[in-house]
From TrEMBL:
Coiled coil: none annotated. GO terms for biological process: methylation. This is Class I SAM-dependent methyltransferase. Keywords: Methyltransferase, Transferase. GO terms for molecular function: methyltransferase activity. The keyword Protein transport does not apply. Residues 52-138 form the Methyltransferase type domain. It comes from the Bacteria. It holds the Pfam family Methyltransf_11.
C-alpha cells in the first residue's frame, strides 16, 4: 500500500491541463446529474445549424458529440485549456476563440441558435442574450453554491457558504437580461475520495475549492485527512449542480 508521501507526490505530479477527469478512475467518484448533460446537448445540437460552447475548457465534453452543427464555435480564456481545445476541436472544423470569462463574446448579435456551457465560472447574461438568435436557447449545467463544501472545510475550517451561485439568483439574472426561463433543476450529488493523492490532484485542478492550495502550505490538513481516510474509509463530500435553460424571445 502506498504511503502518505507517495500518494501526495503522485497527486502533485499529475498534469492539470484541460478538463479531463479520467485520472480519478478508481481513486474518486462523483455521482452524475440525472439529466445527462453530454447526451442532452448532443440531442439539442442535432436540431440546429449553429452552436456556441462558452468556457469550453479543453473542449472534452463538446468533443463527445458525434455530429456537430455546421457552425460550431467555442470560447476559452485559460491558455492551457485553450491549447487543448484547439488540439481537439480545430481538426473537426470548430472555431476556437480566446475570450475571458467576462469578456464580450466576439460574435455578432443573433449569431447562434444554441449556446451551451458546462460549469461556467462567471456569466455575462447580457452577452448570452445578445449572441442568441431570436427563439434561440441557452442550456447550461452549472455549479451551485456550497459545492464540495466539505472539502473546503477540511482545509480552511468552518466558514459560511457563498450564496452567489444560487440557482434562483441565476434565474433572476438571466431574466433581467431579457431571456425567458424554461428549466431550472438543482441536484445535490455524492462524491467520494479513496486516497489523499486524489484529493491533492482535485485541489490542484479545481482551484477555487481551496484558493491558493499548495501541498506544502496545507501539509498538516492533508496528513489529517489521509489518516481519516485510512481509518474511516472514503472521504465523502457533495457537489451541487443545476441545469438552467433559457430562451430568447
Amino acid at each position: 500500500m502506498a504511503t502518505f508521501d507517495e500518494l501526495v507526490a503522485e497527486g502533485a505530479a499529475v498534469p492539470v491541463d484541460g478538463w479531463d477527469f479520467s485520472w480519478f478512475e478508481g481513486r474518486a467518484t462523483e455521482q452524475r446529474p440525472s439529466w445527462g448533460y453530454a447526451r442532452l446537448i448532443a440531442a439539442r445540437m442535432a436540431d440546429v445549424q449553429s452552436v456556441l460552447d462558452v468556457q469550453t475548457g479543453g473542449g472534452e465534453v463538446l468533443n463527445t458529440v458525434t455530429q456537430l452543427p455546421p457552425r460550431t464555435a467555442v470560447t476559452e480564456g485559460w491558455p492551457p485549456s485553450l491549447a487543448v481545445a484547439r488540439r481537439l476541436l480545430e481538426p473537426r472544423g470548430v472555431e476556437v476563440v480566446e475570450a475571458g470569462n467576462l469578456d464580450p463574446l466576439p460574435f455578432a448579435d443573433g449569431s447562434f441558435e444554441l449556446v451551451v456551457s458546462r460549469h461556467p465560472t462567471e456569466i455575462r447574461w447580457d452577452e448570452i442574450a445578445r449572441v442568441l438568435a431570436p427563439g434561440g436557447t441557452y442550456l447550461s449545467q452549472q455549479v451551485g453554491s456550497g459545492s464540495m463544501h466539505e472539502v473546503s472545510e477540511a482545509f480552511l475550517g468552518p466558514f459560511e457558504m457563498d450564496r452567489s451561485r444560487d440557482p434562483d439568483l441565476a434565474a433572476e439574472e438571466a431574466e433581467a437580461a431579457g431571456v425567458e426561463l424554461v428549466t431550472l433543476k438543482p441536484e445535490s450529488l455524492r462524491a467520494e475520495f479513496f486516497d489523499i493523492g486524489a484529493v491533492v490532484h482535485f485541489l490542484r485542478k479545481v482551484v477555487w475549492i481551496v484558493p491558493g492550495f499548495t501541498v506544502d502550505g496545507y501539509l498538516p490538513q492533508l496528513r489529517a485527512l489521509h489518516e481519516r481516510i485510512e481509518s474511516e474509509g472514503p472521504f465523502v463530500a457533495h457537489t451541487q449542480r443545476f441545469l438552467i435553460e433559457v430562451r430568447k424571445p
